[in-house]
Every structure is written in structure tokens, then in C-alpha cells.
Design a protein that fits this description.
Pfam family, one: CstA
Helix content: over 70%
Strand content: under 5%
Membrane topology: Multi-pass membrane protein
CATH superfamily: Amino acid/polyamine transporter I
Order of helices and strands: HHHHHHHHHHHHHHHHH
Main location: membrane
GO cellular component, one term: plasma membrane
CATH topology: Amino acid/polyamine transporter I
Largest sheet: none
Number of domains: 1
Number of helices: 17
Oligomer: single chain
CATH class: Mainly Alpha
Protein name: Carbon starvation protein CstA
């Protein structure tokens, strides 16, 4: 468990020592009036206590992402833990923090509006497309996954509750209410409790694994994917399918490391915070907490099965990550664990899906400057949810691939947006520009090799991806320096 403890310690230390440095670059002003104070409307701009805001943000960005992704990533071995921690500290937490900073500094606006302010109308259009696409796919995915789980429970066999369409309609009805109603009617009341539930479940699983986990790889196995020859036990060999770590591991584990979806959730709490000083604990803190959740479930995937990676792969083939969650929870926590598992894979995704559709409504309203009347909210929400219903008829794996692609693309775009923000401030931009290069490299590599992309040979993807990332930074520096003298004249 040494690797696990080091990972948790690094995440905590990053919040303690690195996040204040990041905050100093952002220009936080505790005396500034927040969007909530200036635009309170009783619908989206509503004051929320910072502790509640943290739990809501944590649940908004977490859902089942830091559970399912790390379980799938555990097939690659302990290197999954290394990626979660490094990705979180260098990329994800900084990405989430600046998503909150940019939104609260820009009146709680959505990302496309902010992109238009810092770049131009063309970049705004690109960000609007990426954001809307990602939010829509997230919403559809989080209709299909909980509906499929609930309809397949043994308790509901041979009843109306065993019908997948029934649960799809029930979840859509809830999404409609959560999208339409003021934020203090459902989200601020229920989400803090669900956030606490996720924390309790995570701690319980972590303690159970430390006391009872039957199989823990050796320390030297962390980077074993470089050379599989030294394994003495075939059952313990990671990555049984021989999938390339670059770029697939970075796509498989996004939530917990870095996820563009998180930036789409930033305006929800940015419109509710009562002081800019709460941005760091709410946004940076929620991402660090998600990283801890991801580490626990990656460890569970690695350590909880006597049959090692082969057994994990078999369970995933049978019933996906949900089956793994159920087996881990019931094995180590009994009946209570079984109930927690059902909550985790059924309720947690719903809490991400409803805020995805709510964020999509806000994004569209912001982009087209639509007044926040009940009639206008209906005109936006009803078509979106109707189309989402018909999208649930499409193959889940296809929806998931496009979700993964748009997720990476958006997170990288936000890092470049934050780079431009720090350029304009004249502060230390490398905290975001370096991870932006990394995100660009992974995104380009994935597009080059993926079946939904160009399908080119994998060895070519890494150098080309890195080159594109560096070129993007150089182009941004040149463009910034060309505009700077004009700004000085003004």
C-alpha cells in the first residue's frame, strides 16, 4: 500500500502548498463583489455557504467518473495511480481552479462567453460547440448507465421496474425538474448529503482494502508495462489486452486526473459563491477530493481480486465497472456495501447528468443572450431533453467514445484559455501552459490513432502530438506579443 499512501499524501500536500502559489497568479480579490451579490435572481444567482458549495461542486464533477474510469484504468497496473496523481496536481486541479476563477471574474458566465472575451468570436464558436457537445453527451450517458443498472436489478425482475424505458423516462422527468427549477430547490438541498455519502463510501472502501486486500503488486511493478518479462505470475500481469498506455490510459482515466466536463460545471457555483476567496477550496479542493476517490478505486481494481488483472478483465467483460463496484463493496462491506454500490452506480451518475443539462441550458442562454423567464427556460430545456431521449436508443459504446473525445478536447481548450488569462495578467503562465501542451499532445495522439479518428500507426502519434502542443504555445506567445504594444498605446 506504499504507493497508495504516497499518492494520497502528494494530493494533500499539493493542496496545502501548491494551490496557494496557483492562487497568487490568479489575482483573487476577497473584497470584490461576486456575481451572486451583483446579479441575484433567485434562480441561478443564489448565495450558497462555501461548505455546501464544496460538496455540490465535488458531486457535480465526480458522479461515477472517479469510480468507473480508475477501475477501467486499473487494467494498466499501478501506473494508473501515478497518472491520477500527476494528472490531478499538474493538470486537473489547476484546470478546475481556473475554470472557477474565469467564471467568477466574468460575472458567472459560461466558458464560450469567456472564450469570446479573451480571444475572438471564432474561438467562442468553437468553445460553444465543444461545450454543448460534451454536456449533451454527458447527459445522455448518465441517462443510459443508471437506467440500465436499475432495470437489471434482481429485485425488479418481471415488474415494470425491470423495463429500461421506464427508468429512462423517470430519469428524464427528474432532469427536467432539476434543469428548470431554481438551484436552491433541489441541488443545494440534496447534493451536500450525496456528497457526504460519497466521502463515507470512499473512506469505508479505503479502510477495508488496507485491512483485507488479498493481492497487492510489488513496488517495482509500478512501471511494469515497460517490460512484462519479469512477471512470475501471469495473473498479475497488467494490461492483458496489450493496449498502448499512450494515449489510451490518459483517455480512460479522466475524472480524477483531468476532465473538461468539470469546466462546464464551474458557472453553477461561480454564480453562488459569496466571496472570491472561496474559489480555491471549492474548485481546487473538490478536484483534489476527486483524485483521492480515484486513487481508492484504482487501488480496489488492482488489489481486490485474487485473480489479479485477468479476474478484473473478466468482470469488466461480464458487467462493466458497475459489476466491479458491486463486487468490491459487497465483499468488503456486506449488505451496507451493496446498498452503497447501488447508490454509487445509480444515483451518483444522475447527479452529474442533471447538472450537465442545467449547464447546457445556461450555456445556450448565455450564448444567445436569452432572458431567464420560465417560458424561455422551457423552450430551451424541452427540445434538449426530447433529443436526449432518442439518443438513448443509440449504442452506448459509440456515445461513450464521442464523450471521451469531447472531454479531452474541452479540457485542453480551457487550459489554453487560462494561459491567455495569465498572459494578460503578466503572471507565471507555465502552471497552465505546460499542462496545456500535454493535453494537446494526448488529444492529437488519440485523434491520430483512434478508430473514430485517423487510424494511423501508434508510434507516430506521440512525437506529432507533442510537436503540435509546442506549436500552439509558440503561436499563442507570438499572437500575445503582437497585440501587447497596441494595448500599451491604449
Amino acid at each position: 500500500m506504499l504507493i497508495f499512501f504516497i499518492c494520497i499524501a502528494l494530493l494533500v500536500l499539493a493542496y496545502k502548498f501548491y494551490s496557494p502559489f496557483v492562487e497568487r497568479q490568479a489575482g483573487i480579490d476577497p473584497k470584490a463583489k461576486t456575481p451572486q451579490a451583483r446579479f441575484e435572481d433567485g434562480v441561478d444567482y443564489v448565495p450558497v455557504h462555501p461548505a455546501k458549495a464544496f460538496l455540490i461542486q465535488f458531486l457535480n464533477v465526480a458522479g461515477v467518473g472517479p469510480i468507473f474510469g480508475p477501475i477501467l484504468g486499473a487494467l494498466y497496473g499501478p501506473i494508473a495511480l501515478v497518472w491520477i496523481v500527476l494528472g490531478n496536481i499538474i493538470g486537473g486541479a489547476v484546470h478546475d481552479y481556473f475554470s472557477g476563477v474565469l467564471s467568477i471574474k466574468e460575472d458567472g458566465k459560461s466558458l464560450p462567453e469567456i472564450a469570446g472575451h479573451y480571444f475572438n468570436i471564432y474561438f467562442k464558436g468553437v468553445m460553444l460547440l465543444f461545450t454543448a457537445m460534451l454536456l449533451f453527451f454527458v447527459g445522455v450517458v448518465f441517462i443510459m448507465s443508471p437506467a440500465g443498472l436499475l432495470s437489471n436489478l434482481d429485485y425488479f425482475k418481471d415488474t415494470i421496474f425491470g423495463n429500461n424505458t421506464f427508468w429512462v423516462l423517470v430519469i428524464l422527468a427528474y432532469y427536467f425538474l432539476a434543469t428548470m427549477l431554481p438551484i436552491d430547490k433541489i441541488i443545494t438541498k440534496l447534493y451536500p448529503a450525496f456528497g457526504l455519502l460519497m466521502i463515507v463510501m470512499t473512506v469505508s472502501i479505503a479502510v477495508a482494502l488496507m485491512l483485507n486486500a488479498p493481492q497487492l503488486p510489488e513496488m517495482g511493478d509500478v512501471f511494469a508495462y515497460f517490460d512484462h518479462s519479469h512477471y512470475n505470475n501471469e495473473l498479475l500481469e497488467p494490461n492483458p489486452d496489450g493496449l498502448p498506455v499512450w494515449p489510451l490510459l490518459f483517455v480512460t482515466i479522466t475524472c480524477g486526473a483531468i476532465s473538461g466536463f468539470h469546466s462546464t460545471q464551474a458557472p453553477i457555483m461561480a454564480r453562488c459563491l459569496t466571496n472570491e476567496k472561496y474559489v480555491r477550496p471549492v474548485y481546487y479542493g473538490a478536484m483534489v477530493a476527486e483524485g483521492i476517490v480515484a486513487c481508492v478505486w484504482a487501488t480496489a481494481g488492482i488489489a481486490a481480486f485474487p485473480g489479479g488483472y485477468v479476474e478484473l478483465k473478466s468482470l469488466l467483460d461480464q458487467g462493466g465497472p458497475g459489476l466491479v463496484v458491486n463486487q468490491v463493496a459487497t465483499t468488503y462491506l456486506g449488505v451496507v456495501g451493496g446498498i452503497m454500490a447501488i447508490v454509487a452506480v445509480a444515483i451518483f451518475p444522475i447527479t452529474s447528468g442533471d447538472t450537465a443539462f442545467r449547464s447546457l441550458r445556461l450555456t445556450i442562454i448565455d450564448a444567445f443572450h436569452i432572458p431567464q423567464s420560465m417560458r424561455n427556460r422551457l423552450l430551451v430545456a424541452v427540445p434538449i431533453l426530447t433529443i436526449a431521449y432518442f439518443m438513448t436508443k443509440i449504442d452506448f459504446s459509440l456515445i461513450w467514445r464521442y464523450f471521451a473525445f469531447s472531454n479531452m478536447l474541452l479540457s485542453t481548450s480551457v487550459l489554453w484559455l487560462a494561459t491567455k488569462y495569465l498572459f494578460d495578467r503578466g503572471t507565471f503562465h507555465w502552471i497552465v501552459s505546460l499542462p496545456a501542451i500535454g493535453g494537446t499532445s494526448v488529444t492529437v495522439s488519440y485523434i491520430m490513432t483512434a478508430g473514430i479518428g485517423l487510424g494511423l500507426p501508434q508510434p507516430l502519434s506521440q512525437p506529432v502530438g507533442i510537436a503540435v502542443g509546442v506549436i500552439c504555445l509558440v503561436a499563442l506567445i507570438i499572437a500575445h506579443n503582437r497585440r501587447k504594444p497596441v494595448a500599451d498605446v491604449k
